[in-house]
Amino acid sequence: MKRVKIAEILSQPQIGQEILVKGWVRAFRSNRFIQLNDGSTINTLQAVVDFENFDEAVLKKITTAAAVGLKGTLIESQGSGQAVELQVSEIEIIGEANPDDVQKTVMQPKKHSLEFLREQAHLRFRTNTFGAVFRIRHAVAFAIHNYFNEKGFFYLHTPIITGSDAEGAGEMFRVTNLDPINPPLNEDGTVNFKEDFFGKAVNLTVSGQLEAELAALALGQVYTFGPTFRAENSNTSRHLAEFWMIEPEVAFNDLLDNMNLTEDFLKYICQYIMTNCADDLKFLNDREVQEQASKPQNERNELSLIERLQFVVNNEFKRLTYTEAIDVLKNSNHYKKKKFKFDVSWGIDLQSEHERYLVEKEFKCPVILTNYPAEIKAFYMRQNDDGKTVAAMDVLFPGIGEIVGGSQREERLDILKKKCADFHIPEEELWWYLDTRKFGTVPHAGFGLGFERMVMFVTGMSNIRDVIPFPRTPQNAEF
Ligand code: 4AD
Ligand code: MG
Questions:
Q1: Pocket flag, ligand 1, residue 261 (CB < 6 Å)
Q2: Residue 212 CA: which ligand is closest?
Q3: Best mutation site among 453, 468, 472 for ligand 1 pocket (most ligand atoms within 8 Å of CB)
Q4: 26: closest CA among 76, 57, 59, 67?
Q5: Is 128-158+210-227+244-466 CATH 2.102.10.10?
Q6: Which CATH architecture is the domain 6-104 placed in?
Q7: Of 228, 382, 467, best ligand 1 pocket probe by most atoms within 8 Å of the beta carbon
Q8: Which whole-number Å values give the CA distances from 303 to 266, 298, 311, 360, 463, in the listed order?
Q9: Region at 364 (left for phi over 0; alpha for psi -120 to 50; beta for the rest)
Q10: How many angstroms separate the alpha carbon of residue 405 from the centre of ligand 1?
């Protein structure tokens, strides 16, 4: 008999049908009611067992977390709480679970802290919360590919091992197969990477953008979606050492086109999740409402998770320049009352407290900040006519802070060469990038969306470690 998924059974119940389901027991009450989950949906199927018909030995093995196969007839439910239930005729115990061991895990059906769940990242998939998060994570990825495919972008795979530091922040993980104890040395005592595997020093990529630009200048519109690595030693709830980034790049786009694309794209993802992940979203929404109830009034979210997604879809993002944002911050009561930890003046790199003030207190909506000082942004951003700022753009989201970073790119060879010099980037390292500015160079623009930060936003999870299956953070690479 063909196995049927619980998602399918519950969405199109065929009363009277003989079916086979396989999954994990969430609960077994009164030696009669099994709650079965198979991962296809957050919902469980209720299966009813007439214990007189089965061996005591078999029934004893139907314990929380055990895997079972159940054959039976789908009937209208006799009890309230569910529309249908399975009248069980055959039970197969597929994988037993010792109740004493289950007691010590996150599978024990009670409320666990997210920290405890993180320690058992290999088992947390079995919980409702993480089932919902990872089904939604999948849907976000799918929505992203869908969006770009519909718009005629090409998915480009950029290298994971690379010699360049696109962002210039120097936060890279070295990739080498030299003997760490006895590496070949230059005369000055430094390691001789000419003898390394690739004949040069290489690292894990911090961004696929530079390569995406090369392709965009031929294919027109491309996007990357790949793993990204940053050795930033920041142990925050928003940083990972290994995360996923989506980087679209479009020839002939300027900064305004770039902002419009970003806004449309982020709205599409939010709408897609509301349309396609209703059950999981409702679960996470209610979970958050419960959690909020235990917090003091002034720390609670003004909008629920679903309301926040609706808000993003239905409202225009606030757009202003960096210079205007600095004025807003300086004129705020928050600033005057010295409530910011970090000072505010033109030229500073905005701290997360500044970004969150703008989004959560001042404008109460997503914000796109543009035209940042050249010194605090990467070398490739297009220089504005004022000579001081570049055509950069950051998108700030409530509860998250920076979710997207992007810019129009410097397409003029002479200015780009000068920027390389200013940023101490040897031209011979980037000859291939500079080359594209010699052959039909055109204005172009793109951005990077932090995938996990987007998943945080649509699931309402407040720690980035809880939206990636196996987080990589300083001092932590378990699993
Ligand atoms: O602002 P970033 O550094 O921009 C770039 O890398 C550009 N090359 C993008 C482009 O224009 N093609 O990073 C982009 C986004 C950030 O806004 C943030 O959402 C996410 O990537 N991000 C991180 N997410 C998790 N952990 C980290 N350590 C992150 N660093 C950046
Ligand atoms: Mg950034």
A1: no
A2: 1
A3: 453
A4: 67
A5: no
A6: Beta Barrel (2.40)
A7: 228
A8: 18, 13, 9, 11, 18
A9: left
A10: 6
Ligand 1: residue whose CA is nearest its atom 31: 450
Ligand positioned closest to the Cα atom of 250: 1
Matching residue, tokens 């294919």: 219
Side chain identity, residue 403: I
Q: How far is CA 175 from CA 7, 54, 88, 204, in A?
A: 43, 59, 55, 7
Closest ligand, as measured to the CA of 397: 1
Give the residue, by CA position, lying nearest to ligand 1 atom 25: 239
Is 43 touching ligand 1 by the criterion CB < 6 Å?
no
Query: Do the domains spanning 6-104 and 128-158+210-227+244-466 agree at the CATH topology level?
Result: no
Domain spans, the chain:
6-104, 128-158+210-227+244-466
Is the minimum distance from the CB of 270 to ligand 1 under 6 angstroms?
A: no
Per-position pLDDT tens, the chain of length 479: 889 999 999 999 999 999 999 999 999 999 999 999 999 999 999 999 999 999 999 999 999 999 999 999 999 998 888 899 999 999 999 999 999 999 999 999 889 999 999 999 999 999 999 999 999 999 999 999 999 999 999 999 999 999 988 888 879 999 999 999 999 999 999 999 999 999 999 999 999 999 999 999 999 999 999 999 999 888 899 999 999 999 999 999 999 999 999 999 999 999 999 999 999 999 999 999 999 999 998 888 889 999 999 999 999 999 999 999 999 999 999 999 999 999 999 999 999 999 999 999 999 999 999 999 999 999 999 999 999 999 999 999 999 999 999 999 999 999 999 999 999 999 999 999 999 999 999 999 999 999 999 999 999 999 999 999 999 999 999 99
Ligand 1 and 247: CB distance under 6 A: yes
Measured by CA distance, the residue closest to atom 30 of ligand 1 is 239
Q: What number of helices (H) and strands (E) belong to the chain?
A: 15, 16
* Pocket of ligand 1 contains residue 452 by CB under 6 Å: yes
CA-to-CA separations, 41 to 37, 69, 278, 312, in angstroms, rounded: 8, 17, 11, 26
Q: In the numeric block, which tokens belong to residue 115?
A: 């920290």
